[in-house]
């Protein structure tokens, strides 16, 4: 009986720690707002294959999330080591920033299609077309807030 009680308490503590860890990593676990930097890739007419197995171009409303978040979400055996099966693939985020040049807030909904190896945990990397909607392309890197959207 004591062993069963100990296992139950240990399991509950482990689940609690995991949910805090997921939240700290920016995994979809609620309506937490994350602060990071927005950058872009995919310049020109070339389509590139992302980690989720889709071809994407410069005007697609897509986003790459940090490799730290992407890999943490896909670490279970359910993905079979195939990044196309990562549970973040196809998830949506809403990115928002204040654009001082036009004195207005910019916002866009994006689909996760890739992992960004150069991103910090809360950074987002998107297509050139999306970046142009959010900021001047000459800025190259801007502050952004974002939240996971529920499907």
UniProtKB/TrEMBL annotation:
Record-linked InterPro entries: Expansin_CellWall, RlpA-like_sf
Domain of life, per lineage: Eukaryota
CDD domains reported for this sequence: DPBB_RlpA_EXP_N-like
Cytoplasm as UniProt keyword: no
Coiled coil start-end: none
Keyword annotations from UniProtKB, A to Z: Signal
Name listed for the protein in its UniProt record: RlpA-like protein double-psi beta-barrel domain-containing protein
Organism in which the protein naturally occurs: Baudoinia panamericana (strain UAMH 10762) (Angels' share fungus)
